[in-house]
Amino acid sequence: MPLFCASFAAEVPLALVQNRRNIFTPNHVGSVCCLFFHNKSRPSSSKPLVSLSESNQTHPSSTMETQNKLVLTPSEPEEYSKKLEVAVRVVQMACLLCQRVQESLLSKSDDQVQSKDDKSPVTIADWSVQATVSWVLSEFFGSKNVSIVAEEDIQVLSGADAGGLLEAVVKTVNECLSEAPRFGLKGPVLALRTTDVLEAISRCNSTGGATGRFWVLDPVDGTLGFVRGDQYAVALALIEDGEPVLGVLGCPNYPMKKEWLSYQNGYRRTISKLSPSTSESGDKGCVIYAWKGSGKAWMQPLLHGEKKLVWPNSARPIHVSSIDNPALATFCEPVEKANSSHSFTAGLAHSVGLRNQPLRVYSMVKYAAIARGDAEIFMKFARAGYKEKIWDHAAGVVIIQEAGGVVTDAGGHPLDFSKGIYLEGLDRGIIACAGAKLHDKIIRAVDASWGSSSL
Ligand SMILES: Nc1ncnc2c1ncn2[C@@H]1O[C@H](COP(=O)(O)OS(=O)(=O)O)[C@@H](OP(=O)(O)O)[C@H]1O
Ligand SMILES: [Mg+2]
Ligand SMILES: [Mg+2]
Ligand SMILES: [Mg+2]
Question: How many A from CA of 159 to the centre of ligand 4?
Fold first, then answer.
């Protein structure tokens, strides 16, 4: 029985435009910027609410090869639109990078997976994505203006025996950045040196906080899924005064149409079944994004394979499921028992009347599944003493909320992104639901069963 079975809204195609340098640049920004300026007084439409006009002006210090000038409503600063635009483009690039590294990991027998101090896995992809995103954001916005909280550091890479690993990261980063023009971004004039790459990774050393703006990056969320050839996500969010205001989730193995996802059979089988024969470039993955306050979230296909720039220019609105009957609802949770108590959620499921098998998926693809309406509930109850990190949740929270869902801790309070790198004060666990009715039921069930749990 397929676990994913809802249908999607019709695709919203947008045309490509050609600029004066003969580089195809996307006007997909239309599909992005609509997120900021959704206005209840506007006529309702499934199309992104933005108009574009061509201009000869290019941001003088920008790395973005665009000559599309956005026509924005006066209420929002134009810099917000640029942030989301750059974020979506760089996440697209990062997803391609990850796909290549994952293929290589799966096809080679040599061990390319490293262990960090806490024994968690890390790969060339984690460091390479962090370096790439850091470099692009710094180039585009100016390194002085960019503050990034991210998962990885250079500790392992700086080890005496890490020369080969570091070389592989530098090569992977340069390969990825050389494709920047396909995504409407400028890459470096000269290939990055080892020191540049290390610098880009280490620059992501912000510790967050309650004031100002900072980016939050999980370069590969669900690294375990990644190394197993399964689901993972590239997650980038912008936090402003302690609240996530922008979220982008790149899901390279989560197809636009979930009917193509045969989860029980293992993802590798799905890839090999689909990849040679598919015609749509976005068949294998998707990128989902949202902007706080827009009341909308969007999904576009993942680009891959083509030599020349073929920007998808299609974004479709996504929305949470309308199912509020527990008997029809599906809940998702981490794959590993070590990351979330399966026995506690099984008890909750029973008491609330959930009948479907849990959907166990690696990474923030779980948040994507709720936002797309593929499942109704996400629950995570980590062991006592584990502190959730902001990069594991920030992008997913804003996307689910804008797609119409609810995300809180088990006490019903919003997740607090203002206290540094951890979700300090988190009450017991995380509960995300398609709607308030299901959410209330779960919260009440947690209260009723917490005392007798061993958590
Ligand atoms: N002990 C423990 N408890 C709870 N959570 C933990 C724990 N250890 C790690 N992590 C974080 O979980 C992130 C992966 O979450 P997933 O939902 O993908 O988990 S699972 O692999 O599906 O079980 C994972 O993110 P990545 O490191 O980016 O993969 C970690 O940040
Ligand atoms: Mg990790
Ligand atoms: Mg993570
Ligand atoms: Mg990670």
Answer: 20
For residues 241 and 31, give the distance between their C-alpha atoms in angstroms, rounded to a whole number.
26
Phi/psi of residue 13, each to 5°?
A: -75, 140
The tokens of 405 are what?
A: 């869902």
Residue 126: active-site member: yes
311 and 377 part of one domain: no
pLDDT tens string for the chain (455 positions)? 222 322 222 222 222 222 222 222 222 222 222 222 222 232 233 332 222 222 223 333 334 444 333 333 334 456 678 999 999 999 999 999 999 999 999 988 667 899 998 899 999 999 999 999 999 999 999 999 999 999 999 999 999 889 899 999 999 999 999 999 989 899 999 999 999 999 999 999 999 999 999 999 999 999 999 999 999 999 999 999 999 999 999 999 999 887 766 544 444 433 433 343 344 444 689 999 999 999 999 999 988 655 444 444 578 999 999 999 999 999 999 999 999 999 999 999 999 999 999 999 999 999 999 999 999 999 999 999 999 999 999 999 999 999 999 999 999 999 999 999 999 999 999 999 999 999 999 999 999 999 888 88
132 catalytic per annotation: no
Instruction: Confirm or reject: Cβ of 229 under 6 Å from ligand 1.
Output: no
* CA nearest ligand 1 atom 5, residue: 339
What is the chain's length?
455
Residues 69 and 71: their CA atoms lie apart, in Å, by: 6
Residues 203 and 294 in one domain: yes
> 432 is in which domain, residue-wise?
326-450
pTM for this model (two decimals): 0.83
Cα–Cα distance, 420 to 43 (Å, whole number): 40
ipTM: 0.99
CA of 220 to the centre of ligand 3 (A): 7
Does 148 lie in the same domain as 165? yes
Q: Is the CB of 116 under 6 A from ligand 1?
A: no
